[in-house]
Amino acid sequence: MSLIGIIGDTQLPAVHPGYLDFCLDMFDEWGGPDNFVHQGDLADMHNQAFHDKHPDMPGPRGEYLETLELVNEWHMYLPKVTVLNSNHDSRAQRVAAKYGLVDEMLTPLHVLWKVPGWTWVDNHIQDGTMFVHGDGAGGGEHPAWNYLKKINDFSVSLGHFHTKAGIKWRMGLLSRRFGMDVGCGVDRLHPAMQYDRKNPIKPVMACAVLKDGIPYHEVMPCGPGETYHRSRFA
For 39, phi and psi rounded to 5 degrees? Predict the structure, then answer.
């Protein structure tokens, strides 16, 4: 049996305080995956963004140290993870490119975050599924489905689109394909998310597993009175 645990965008430190517990609980309920994929945007890199900085955010070093602590907490529970290259994780490279620095002058992400056993890749193919972050994939109401229609060779698991989540299927005579938008673990109330605060469509807090090539999507119950509400992690 193959079982893959799938983690949505976290954008550390702007992660919901209960998201790690939720993911670990869901993975345990499914019997403990033997592989883990993070859909990308592990870190927010707020201070490396081109948009305005929020005054309540710490400076670059403070954000780095806070993110490092959180990354290492995830690494403690999940020592081996495949992380998809993504737009937020590559913010330092984009800033460097703007000022003429080459990638060789930058610290590789697995060294920056001190996570031996974690690997960053552009995409990851396993059990007939292509895992991709999703920046550059387009969009629409069903981004993973739209991406699936472009490649058509694999099922697709997509991150990046925080407000989209769920599974859409296509059945052929000899094939079975799905497009799954995983959702995320991003805390919309975090100062780094201030730019999206007025969006009436909120992030879908969720993770997923892939069991023998079949996806199962798990939504995080985090409303008032529910198991993973923020008040339980204060």
Answer: -75, 0
Q: Is 24 helix (H, G, I), strand (E, B) or coil?
A: helix
CA atoms of 187 and 51, how far apart (whole Å) = 19
Range 22-61 burial, b when 16+ CB lie within 10 A, else e: bbebbbeebeebebbbbbbbbbbbbbbeeeebeeebeeee
Convert the pLDDT of each residue in 108-127 to its tens digit.
899 999 999 999 999 999 99
Total domains present in the chain: 1
For tokens 């900085």, the residue is 53
Amino acid at 49: A
What is the tens place of the pLDDT at every residue in 67-117?
999 999 999 999 999 999 999 998 888 888 888 888 777 888 999 999 999
Question: Domain range for residue 194?
Answer: 3-139+183-233
* pTM higher than the cut 0.85: yes
